[in-house]
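Dear Dr. H.,

I hope your travels went smoothly. While you were away I took the liberty of generating a structure for the chain from your last submission, since the lab meeting agenda had it listed for discussion. I wanted you to have the full record in hand beforehand rather than looking at slides cold. The sequence, exactly as received, is reproduced here:
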Amino acid sequence: MLQEQKLTRFFLPGTVFLCLLVGASLIAWRLLSKPAPATIVKRRVETSPDEALKYWTADKMRNTTATNMPRTDAIKPGKKHRHHSSRKSHQQHS
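The corresponding predicted structure, in token form, is as follows:
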């Protein structure tokens, strides 16, 4: 019985310390692993909306080609879309 008390006195503080150390390292890793925020580029457009509407005729829009968009691998997706409850209730009634 006395040996069990000595082991408990030795292992319990060590276990608590180890758990605190692991928790602190996980928090530090999480905080330090965040990527730098993406740089936002602002540009002022001098063209009026009326001039833009005159420029983009139906023929010009029909003949346009797609452009290469920048890669956004660094951005992690935010909220996941949830299913609407109206869909579920509609499926139940069918």
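Two observations you may find useful: The helical segments are 2-32, 49-55, 58-62, 85-93. The mean pLDDT is 78.

With kind regards,
E. W.
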